[in-house]
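It is worth pausing here to work through a concrete case rather than discussing structure prediction in the abstract. The textbook approach is simple: state the sequence, then state the predicted structure, then interpret. We follow exactly that order.
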Amino acid sequence: MPGKKAASARKATPAEKATPAKKATPAKKATPTKKATPTKKATSVKRAAAAKKVAPAKKVVATGEAVAVKKAAPVKKVAVKPPTDESRTALVRRARRINRELAEVYPYAHPELDFDNPFQLLVATVLSAQTTDLRVNQTTPALFAKYPTPEDLAAANPEEVEEILRPCGFFRMKTKSVMGLSKALAEEFGGEVPGRLEDLVKLPGVGRKTAFVVLGNAFGRPGITVDTHFQRLVRRWQWTAESDPDKIEAAVGALFPKTEWTDLSHHVIWHGRRICHARKPACGACPIAPLCPAYGEGETDPEKARKLLKYEKGGFPGQRLKPPQAYLDAGGRPAPPLGAA
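Step two, the predicted structure:
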């Protein structure tokens, strides 16, 4: 009996081993053949995903920590073209947040041209072309002291006006403009500056930019001033890719309530003059750096960036000889008169 049991046990063993062996073989063959296709697909999917991930990584380096001079070219390309992945709602929110941040940095932002009435602001704005507001403010006191009204300036001796305006540059052309607009004011508007855009742009040397400066700051009527600083910054911030001033005005105006247009212009222009310069933006000292798609186009090192500031962060001193009281209360200093050291 024990012998038979042993024999049966011995026979069962190879049978049992044979059965799994036969089943294992097809199972192993089936497994690789079935899994082979998904494995290749998975690999291709992983490679595709990796490829997709690489692109943003490069963009982040170019716009974020890129800071390096080598990455300057790509950054400029990105800044000129609006982001394709930013929705209209996201753009509006980001633009308005930038304006709120700048309002905190420059709570006293104002036009940096001295004026006591609409006529003085109109003339000063025309004179500010191709020169600084500071230079205009240092020049206009003598002009307005001698010719206080449009009638006076229209009847002036051109050579005498040219001599006064010489420090502003392009003084012959500017003399024709201010005398021409003064004559138009005296003859067509009774010596008063009109408060309508369509009337202002008809005056010699007055375009939409000048008209909006006057309307917003002398008449309290909202307007967007698209000067060189404004154009540069809104493109860097990717608010618009337009280059024509009128189209920029329309595109940016659509992002903000009309009531904010005048102050928005002041905030952007102040920031462009003080921190976000044309050639060397002080990115490392910029209060809105986290919101700027062009971050890294300029110096990002905080210490080096501070040395690039034309004014300290708060915006002092201003360019006006007679700045608003709110500016003085905030610690601002008047600009020096012509000829002062």
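Step three, interpretation. The longest helix spans residues 2-65. The chain is about 60% helix and 0% strand.
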